[in-house]
Write a structure and sequence with these properties.
Blueprint lengths: L6 H4 L36 H7 L4 H8 L6 H16 L11 H5 L4
Helix pairs in contact: 2-3
């Protein structure tokens, strides 16, 4: 098993930065409070969905649909997702003899 790259940094008691964490006062409960009830929002109100629906104009809608394919790694993941959606599996099923049975004539 490969050793973690930052194992020494993460698992020792040394100070991690210029700020002295050992001087912070520890309290048993969180000190940040949320005033009042939090309003629930629909996912349709997010900026991404609004741009996809064309609320910000046709140019932004067209470019949003192209967002993933501009980057090679995201385009590859998108192709894989489309393949799985179309065929239901990520890898093809080979015949019982494997690839060699496909290459041998008359089998």
């Amino acid at each position: 098993m490969e050793r973690l790259r930052y194992h020494d940094i993460l698992y020792n008691d040394a100070q991690l930065g210029p700020y002295p964490d050992h001087l912070l006062k520890r309290v048993p409960e969180p000190t940040n409070r949320v005033p009042g009830p939090v309003e629930r929002r629909s996912e349709r109100e997010s900026v991404f969905n609004k741009s996809l629906m064309g609320d910000f104009g046709e140019d932004l809608q067209r470019e949003f649909k192209r967002l993933g394919t501009r980057y090679p790694i995201v385009a590859a993941v998108q192709d894989l997702q489309l393949h799985i959606a179309a065929y239901g599996e990520a890898r093809p099923r080979w015949p019982r003899g494997g690839l060699l049975s496909l290459m041998t004539p008359g089998s």
